[in-house]
Design goal:
Layout (H helix, E strand, L loop, with lengths): L1 H24 L13 E8 L6 E7 L8 E2 L2 E2 L1 E5 L3
Antiparallel strand pairs: 1-2, 1-5, 3-4
């Protein structure tokens, strides 16, 4: 009889800890930035390893960090004036 009680207590503690962990993981996504926060840019990047090209049209500042591809920063190709 005591083994059943211990098993139920252990199961209850495990379920309780599981719910606590799920609550910590279930955080809401951050609010979107206010309008006007993102700036229009026209930057084109190329991966020096595989040749993939990316065009960035909006960024949070006028000189954003280059995107990463193939575990390395991409090279800036074109900066077009707006």
């Amino acid at each position: 009889m005591s083994k059943v009680i211990v098993a139920l207590l252990v199961a209850g503690v495990l379920i309780w800890v599981g719910f606590i962990i799920l609550k910590m993981l279930a955080t809401p996504p951050p609010e979107p930035p206010p309008s006007g926060e993102l700036r229009k840019v026209k930057l084109q990047y190329r991966c020096s390893l595989c040749g993939t090209e990316v065009r960035m049209t909006t960024a949070n500042n006028e000189t954003p960090d280059p995107p990463r591809h193939c575990m390395d920063d991409m090279d800036l190709l074109v900066v077009e004036e707006l």
